[in-house]
Amino acid sequence: MGQSKLIASTRRKPKKRVRLAKSRPRAVTVAPQLEPGAPSDLDLMQGIQAGDADALSQLYDRYNGILKALILRVIHNEAEADDLLQEIFMEIWNQSKNFSSQKGKPLGWMVTLARRRAIDGLRKKQAYARAEERLQNETEQQPDAWVNNATEEEILLSDTRSLIRKVIAGLPPPQQQAIDLAFFKGMSQREIAAKTNTPLGTVKTRLELGLKKIYDGLKELRDEL
Amino acid sequence: MNFSEFQNQARLYVIGALEPEELEEFENARTKFGKKGEDFITKCYALHEAFALSLRPAKASSSIKDRLMAMVKAKKEA
Fold this sequence. Notes:
Number of strands of chain A: 2
Strand order of the largest sheet of chain A: 1-2
Shape of chain A: globular
Shape of chain B: elongated
Order of helices and strands of chain B: HHHH
Mean pLDDT of chain B: 91
CATH topology of the largest domain in chain A: Rna Polymerase Sigma Factor, Chain: A
Number of helices of chain A: 10
Radius of gyration of chain A: 19 Å
CATH superfamily of the largest domain in chain A: RNA polymerase sigma factor, region 2, helix turn helix motif
Oligomer: heterodimer
Helix content of chain A: 55-70%
CATH class of the largest domain in chain A: Mainly Alpha
Distance between the termini of chain A: 17 Å
Mean pLDDT of chain A: 77
Number of domains of chain B: 1
Strand content of chain A: under 5%
Largest sheet of chain B: none
Largest interface: A-B, 67 and 39 residues
Structural class of chain A: mainly alpha
Helix content of chain B: over 70%
Distance between the termini of chain B: 52 Å
Number of helices of chain B: 4
């Protein structure tokens, strides 16, 4: 894995672009690698907390693609995903004071927030059936993003992202499916059991084994896990 | 519930996959394990990050950022 920088937190004035203050070697994490000299996610989050709109702009540029992909995975509608993406970044701005670096990384917080909003949106519209139909169509038209998507673009992905994909792709398909339905569709174990015609105990086992494998795989990428 | 079982439940908990009856038992164990348990739950949230990063990034409409930044500016000026 390549070297990246960990930026020491510094106080910044609003409207001033977030810049590096000090750096030291950083351990491997699951977050994407940054260009040398780029502010860390934590720097940007602290900028947002201080009311710096430019920090939000930079965070948007860095993560809009990832969060949009996550939202799309849940709701399967391009226009709705765009609207929700905008709402989520507005919520990041409005709720930034609730972020604490002691409880996790900015990306983790944003993903948790985006997932919750996307699943809430899906439930509110009672669109399970419609989304499921779209998902079915998409599955028939193109390989699943978790299973068979070895494209040129993927080859160009960072080592970290590729490794995460390998860990997930290495799971048996039933475990992938159970985790996919739980994480991206917000389904309970009973709902997954009903949907897949699988005994509840089997669903639980699949989730536990699959999540443990992914978690253990991440441990190899993260020194802090 | 021993700590190994708690770890299994914690990974289900962070993705919202615990059933109501499991949730109660998990919360009791969470209290029992205290900081050690909380620290493990925090680590489990890395799973969220990993799932998102496993997806191929999607292109957002170019107008979204303009609208977002206009909303932020309006909010700051309000």
